[in-house]
Each structure stands twice: as structure tokens, then as C-alpha cells.
Design brief:
Order of helices and strands: HEEEHEEEEEEEEEHHEEH
Low-confidence stretches: 12-17
Oligomer: single chain
Structural class: alpha+beta
Strand order of the largest sheet: 7-8-9-10-11-1-2-3-4-5-6-12
Amino acid sequence: MKIYTFLLLVCFTTLSKAQTHRFIYEYQFKPDSSSTNYRNVNMALDINPKDVKFYNYENIINDSLNKKGGNNYSTSPDIPTLRRLKNSYQNTNYEMMMDYFSYNTEDKMDWKLEKETKTSGQYTLQKATTDFGGRHWTAWFCKDINISEGPYKFRGLPGLIFELNDSKENFFFKLAKSQKLEKTCDTSDFLESFAGKKPVLVSIANMHKMMLQFYNDPTKEMREKFDNVPPGTFQVGGTKITSKEQFKEAAKVIQNFIAKNNNPMDLKNAVVYPVIN
């Protein structure tokens, strides 16, 4: 429980002076809701003077390497990335799909404070529940840390969220580490832009339209370029494409992968893919 001792010390002695306070959460999730397998990612919650950012912690490490000449940023549609103004529910969401996109959402949630408490290290955590994004969520927060924030879009409780999960056990967040930063972390190369590409601001409806267009014809770009590249340049599911006849089967492979790995946290703002026979 050393992390909790360190967390308490940092919050009570330096929080008011910190330029940025970073909380790192262990994020465990199922890309496929029907599976028993989880992926594990460390996520950073940066509470800055003017905004709050939530993103894959690995990109901080990669960003340092990239500035030395590398190019190894990491992103995935099933790993949430967002920014919001401090003390607000106005989120700018970032997603890499066919391109790098951003879209805005207002994500206010109504919490029910429960009487149930539990001890974690030297902390007392209180239970709270809410319905958000078509799912039921349980959070454990700490009143002793007066920060009304938490992982992803979850905020608004009278204390920092330590743990969070949905009722179907698809998603788990657990606080793992706390850091004080002397200055705000520069995320301009992997959040406000990605690998040099600025996000295209779209509405959710238009983004869903583009996602469905790609899903319905996922090999379109490869087919259009096929005659101008060496045979075997394109590869789908470990199979090299050497003839145009293979594109039909390749499209099914891509569609099945997209449909299977489609388990968004926010079901109300999620695209609905048709069943392809």
C-alpha cells in the first residue's frame, strides 16, 4: 500500500503548488464483450491549471523517444483519449480511425452516494453509483482528497475516484500512482495532434457515417491502389493479397474484426455496425 501513503503525502503537502497533478490508472478492459480476455493499459489523468487530459500513459514515454528521432506513438479506437476544460463536463474526444478525428460531447452524470465504505491502505473509500452511456457504473472515491475528478469522463464526486467499474465487468479502472509535475506536460504531438496530423473536427453523426462507409467497403482504398503496387504489398489477417479475387474474403476478415472488437464504454454515442453475412 505504499502508493496510497505517497499519494496522501503529495496531495496534502504539494497539491496547491503543483502546476500539474497526474494520476495514473490501471485500465483493464474487454475489447470483445463476449470474451473473458482483458487488455491492460496504464492511463494518465493530468489535472492542469486550465484543463484535464486523459490518455494512454505510454505516449509520454514514446513522446520523449520520438523527440530524439523515433516515431512510435500508440493509439487505438478502444483506448479513450480526451480533454476537457477544468471543472466542466465539456469533453473533446480524440479518435484515430481512417484519419485522426475529434468530436465534442457534454457528459454530465448524476451520482448516487451510497452508505457503503471500504478501506484501501490508510484511505476510507465511499461507494457511488451512476448510469452513464447505457451502462451502470460503481465508483469508490476518497473524500480525503478533495479533487472532483476521475478516469475517462467520470467526475463530479466529492473526492478523487480511486476505483471504477461497470456492472457487466467489461471495464475496470484502479488508481496506481500519483505524480507532481513542475510544469504542464506537452501533449501537442500525441493528443492535440497525432504524429504530425491535426484532428478533423466532426459531429458524432458524420463520424459514424464515415465509420460505416469504411465498414461496408473496408478494402476500397487497397483495391484502388492494387494495380500500382507490387503483388503482396497489402496484407489482411496475415494473408498477402496477390489477386483482386482475394479482396472479397479480405473485406469479411476486416468486418468481422471490427464487429468483434467493438465494445465501447459509451454505448449511447457508439456506432452500430450491421451484421454482414
